Here is the input.
Amino acid sequence: MDENLAHYALQQSKADYAEVRMEELHGLQAVVKNGNLDIYQLFSQYGLSVRALIDGGLGFASTNRLDKESINHVVEKAQKLARTSATRNTEKIGLSDEEMHTASYEIPQKKNLEDVDRSQELLNLNNHLEHEEGLVFQLYQYTDEDHTKYFVNTEGAEIRSRIPRVSLLAILTVIESNDSEQCQLQYGGVGGWETFQEFNLYEKLPKEVRVLYRILKEGVKAPSDSVSVIVGPEVAGITAHESCGHPLEADRILGREAAQAGESFVNPTMVGTTIGSELVNIAEDPTIEGSYGYYLYDDEGVKARKRMLIKEGKINEFLSNRETGYALKGKSNGAARAMAFDREPIVRMANTYFCAGDYTKEELIEETKKGVLMESFTEWNIDDTRFNQRYIGREAYVIENGEVGPPVVRPVLEVTTTGFYSSVDAVADEIVLYAGTCGKGDPVQGAPTCMGGPYMRLKDIRLGGVHG
Here is the structure.
């Protein structure tokens, strides 16, 4: 990557503010379906983008032709778009004042990805599971990428980063008699092949298959009366991501996502508003080592930090970039992310999770006279203001007098955001994170994220689904 070209682009700019981001990405994708290698492809991408602010208008342009003539064209295009935007905006766009940094960071590969026959590893994994009882379908989609970025702006920022990421999507289908169950699982992290090995798939995936088979053989209906519901880290995580992370994105709060992803039940005046139990604390932290959503500086050059979105049941802060920070008379908290050189940075989550409490999982169960333990989910949906939602359990069990009983078939947890948060009466002490890919933007940008939390108990919940 010729960093001089980024500086050349910056020098050509006549904007009030300008930034240049260069990226280079190399990767591999492989898909194995029922023991057959269906897809094996290498991919690469490189290019440069320019963002310019002129008279309250913001313009963005990009190119994958890294010569001075193309760069001159991109700089002028970004500035032209900024001038046009300035004449049409009813409110002037600005950027919050932030401390700028010079920094370089890189995630090492302890086991180089290119030294591993990754397609064969997927085939080996498929073969390891093929004799599991009831298993009729396996699909594995593996992706790795080595992503290098270089960012400079007219305020003195200069950030270099190199992050290799590894992920696997697994879909498993189990049949017993005329019934079937399916799970879709995602694993992801940063690093080399050692990251994939740490997923521990040879142990985890057979367990998932056996859980599904047991549900089909022994599953009972959900209780029809109000019970306590203990949700596991996977359910806690999807709830944190969907009902807290998205509605607390500042661009969404300001109405700028309404046409693409929806609106928010939160408005700009709600910082400090109580929406849940004092036991509810939700954090957002890009700096967690090894996490799929890891970064140390965002794509506007702002240093990343832990963000406390919900603190003791109250809305504490929004996820912001420099544009929304300015609009809300505040600051960015390092939430600007772009997924490719030709995508504009927008407000994104990284790693969103419920914070730990002081119970153990065992204590939560022992104190529950009648309830359901919902370890994981099989599907979910939520409205476009992120208020009404439902989560359907995959692995779930009856709890009677403090003991875990038979599996429950697809219990439905249907609640509002405030209803969920207000029902929390106990939180366990160990956090587990799960990888995910968050979709947002138009054109869509799929962002690597994590979500999770500890086991949590909700009181007085009436479950949907098929009742006993």
